Amino acid sequence: MEEQTRVTELQAGNIDFAYDLPPDNVAQIKASPDVNYLETPLGHVWFLVMNTKTGPTANVKVRQAVAYAINSEQIISDILQGTGVPAYGPVPSAIGAMYGQDSLPYYTYDPEKAKSLLAEADMASGFQTKFWVPQSGSGMQSPKTMGEAIQANLADVGINAQIEVSEWGAYLEQYAKGLPDDVAFAECSWFATDARNIPNLTLTCGTVSPTGYNAGYYCSQDVDKLIDQFTKTLDHDQQAEILVNLQKLVMDEVPNFYVDSQLGTAAMSKKYTGFTLHPSQLLPFYSTHLA
Fold it and tell me: Is 222 in contact with 69 (CB distance < 8 Å)?
């Protein structure tokens, strides 16, 4: 059932539960006298993939400029209507918080800094490229609107990113082959229940497309080593230290720009009680009963 249909049917009383609510409807649902609004952090992260192999974004200064150019806090507040929280790197906030990583430094919106970095990379006049965006897709939140906001932010610092929109199935097929030379940017999101899953599946040398999900071709022996160290230790404090080093390294090299970690949202008829959302996205109705 499409998202707007879910909301309409919920408000009409034809269904009792709706999950993954459209951000634009959250305020309306919160104000509804007939349903309870539910929200929880998820093991999810949404990010802008950058081509680290060829083109302007092969230069780390350009990638850092892109990170400073994007107003992620405005995307979260205006487009996502607060249904996300800032991402500090490849480890989602819900998982990172378990390791004391809910306040790591991240890129703040600074277009002047972005312009300065472009100048240092001998690209003061900016550049033109292509930007892959899906129409929709699992975990992609509001991909077209978010893409248009990012496109506008990039244009403000001289980067002309031409958006190419694809249907989700076609998008995944082309994404898995990796970004071609004339495509600098693509959107992606990932969900994990383990701290190593997202970096392990999207950032390691062994996952470079077309053999994996590393469509931007990022390969760092240092990152691979840290992920391996995290996997081989069971000590929580050591794992936390490794994750801090991993996140800082990835944020410095910016193979991807991490915009937000999504919050799980749902609404349930007040006829029922006992239900809570779970960060795993599993829906445990076994404790739900009539009020």
Answer: no
